[in-house]
Design goal:
Blueprint: H1 2-21, H2 25-38
Helix pairs in contact: 1-2
Length: 47
């Protein structure tokens, strides 16, 4: 389960960075914050 959370978190953070680059600042910030919350280092929503 930890590996899956790492992958999901990485995809969300990368998507958020790409959204910011495409001038979608608010959406990018939301994706990065959700990615950090989902990741095993953050507050996991699934445990």
């Amino acid at each position: 389960m930890g590996i899956i959370l790492w992958i999901i978190a990485a995809v969300l953070v990368i998507s958020g960075i790409l959204a910011i680059v495409r001038k979608q600042l608010l959406w990018g910030i939301v994706l990065i914050v959700v990615g950090l919350l989902v990741g095993p280092g953050g507050v996991s929503l699934f445990t």
